[in-house]
Design a protein that fits this description.
seven-stranded mixed β-sheet, zinc, disordered C terminus, metal-binding, Purple Acid Phosphatase, chain A, domain 2, RNA lariat debranching enzyme activity
Length: about 525
């Protein structure tokens, strides 16, 4: 079957779907499935806009609300993960995944589903070491800290995914797995994005948690976005035994959704011709959720997941074939995900703007039904209970609970907290203007008017139809210092000269990284300064 993969959507659903329709008209290619690798921006109304970690002047409604209201329907089944520019209050309603609109499915904090026999997994958000070991404690209304931490990856989601034993066909993450750039045309990448050099050479670009998952899951395909550049790589995995067959992952990062940008890719994926067209639950993943339910943490307490180090009574939460069979029996062997989308917030009405509407913490009926069916903890219900008991202290903070044998708050983090090496101040965050924000300022820079859609005929040349081979040659996987890379057959990419022509200086601080002047990561300066001069100080 044909699968379309998109990078950062940034709420431009009309543009994305119209591009797919143009693809069908011009080349008679109709994808069976669309995957989006984060920054989807499922914004329903003005309150949702205030829950996106971007400066207010970049908060634009875009076109998702039309699909949420039912005015429009996605022409192809769409499955997406969250990024770092989302209506976090909306996605938080569906921690285990669910429908955000008819025919548009969110995978949750982490999730695995099946479509036509193809197993698709993903993890939402981006990696930040200082929040990695916390629970999902945030809820609206967010403050300047929680509006960012709400989309930070947590170790429990990585732990759950690492319990999977069955093969994964496709996996999605928003940020790149750390070190993946060593398996592609690194020289070409640095030619296009020279401001990545320091992080690439220090091996600090990307997510160490995603890298860990890549090595464990070894999926056939791995798709990412976030850095707004197209990049292909081919990673041959080491085998654990002589009996194990060699495995390899074809990695592809997509650009953001803009005209003249390479934001969409079509691949052919082997599927089960006898499988139905409905999106389905994955029985092993449901069994893992049930097995790890006792590990759910909705506090700010930091702790490591169970491991074989003498501190935990249990560390292996992978599931048996019997447990998977029990899930199948619970569902009467009908794995079809119910089409139970429900409106949980008022939809934006251009004729009646509601600029003063405040976001509220909502319990989504889809999550309630899912948790009841499989005996899982409703994370939002747990947070709500804490608020009602008066332990929220006004910011949805649940009381500090004593950790049992499944975890320990005193264990050291499995990742070095200094995961950038660029400076002594927090390397993961950027400081913006008074409106706040995080990492990527281009969240709402795409603002096509709903009444004046853009001309897509000029942007169609950026669509690439990729065969099974993923068009990654052996030369692409060689070290970037090899001059043969200049002649490799790697994917053609769009060079953004405007982002590198201007020399940009980082604002420094004292030796401890303290300064009264706002700072911004070097590569973010180069990416965004040329797009909009007034986005940073």
């Amino acid at each position: 079957m044909k699968v379309a993969v998109a990078g950062c959507c940034h709420g431009a659903l009309d543009k994305m779907y119209e591009t797919l329709e143009l693809l069908q008209r011009r080349h008679n290619v109709r994808p069976d499935l669309l995957l989006c690798c984060g920054d989807f921006q499922a914004v329903r109304n003005e309150a949702d806009l205030r829950c996106m970690a971007v400066p207010a002047k970049y908060r634009h409604m875009q076109t998702f609300y039309r699909y949420y209201s039912g005015e429009k329907k996605a022409p192809v089944l769409t499955v997406f993960i969250g990024g770092n520019h989302e209506a976090s209050n909306h996605l938080q309603e569906l921690p285990y995944g669910g429908w955000v609109a008819p025919n548009i499915y969110y995978l949750g904090y982490a999730g695995v589903v099946r479509f036509r026999g193809v197993r698709i997994g993903g993890i939402s958000g981006i990696f930040k070491s200082h929040d990695y070991r916390k629970g999902h404690f945030e809820c609206p209304p967010y403050n300047q800290q929680t509006i960012r931490s709400a989309y930070h990856v947590r170790n429990i989601e990585v732990f759950k995914l690492k319990q999977l034993k069955r093969p994964i066909d496709i996996f999605m993450s928003h940020d790149w797995p750390r070190s993946i750039y060593h398996y592609g045309n690194k020289k070409q990448l640095l030619k296009m994005k020279s401001f990545f050099r320091q992080e690439v050479e220090s091996n600090t670009l990307g997510s160490p948690a995603a890298s860990e998952l890549l090595q464990h899951l070894k999926p056939t395909y791995w798709f990412s976005a976030h850095l707004h550049v197209k990049f292909a790589a081919f990673m041959q995995h080491e085998t654990n035994s002589k009996e194990e067959l060699p495995k390899a992952t074809k990695f592809l990062a997509l650009d953001k959704c803009l005209p003249h940008r390479d934001f969409l890719q079509i691949i052919d994926v082997e599927h089960d011709p006898n499988a139905g067209d409905a999106l389905e639950y994955d029985a092993e993943w449901i069994a893992v959720l049930k097995a790890t339910n006792s590990l759910v943490n909705v506090t700010q307490s930091t702790w490591n997941m169970p491991e074989k180090n003498g501190l935990h009574a249990k560390w292996d939460y992978s599931v048996t074939e019997e447990a998977i069979k029990e899930v199948l029996e619970e569902l009467n062997h009908d794995l079809k995900i119910p089409c139970n989308f429900t409106l949980t917030a008022a939809c934006y009405d251009p004729s009646k703007p509601q600029k003063n509407t405040e976001p509220v913490h909502t319990i989504n009926p889809q999550t309630t039904e899912f948790c009841a069916q499989f005996g899982l903890t409703d994370i939002n219900d747990r947070i709500q209970q804490a608020k009602e008991e008066g332990s929220g202290r006004g910011e949805c903070e649940e009381e500090e609970e004593e950790m049992d044998s499944t975890g320990s708050a005193e264990e050291p983090s499995e990742y070095n907290t200094d995961n950038s090496g660029l400076s002594s101040f927090n390397p993961d965050e950027i400081m913006l203007d008074e409106e706040g924000g995080d990492e990527d300022l281009s969240t709402c820079s795409v603002d096509p008017s709903p009444d004046h859609p853009p001309d897509f005929s000029t942007s169609f040349s950026d669509i690439r139809i990729m065969p099974d081979s993923m068009a990654v040659s052996s030369d692409d996987a060689m070290d970037s210092n090899n001059e043969e890379l200049e002649k490799s057959g790697g994917s053609k990419q769009v060079q953004e000269k405007s982002s590198t022509e201007r020399p940009l200086k980082r604002i420094g601080g004292d030796e401890n990284g303290n300064s009264g002047v706002k700072k911004i990561k070097r590569r973010n300066q180069a990416i965004y300064a040329a797009e909009d001069e007034d986005k940073t100080d």
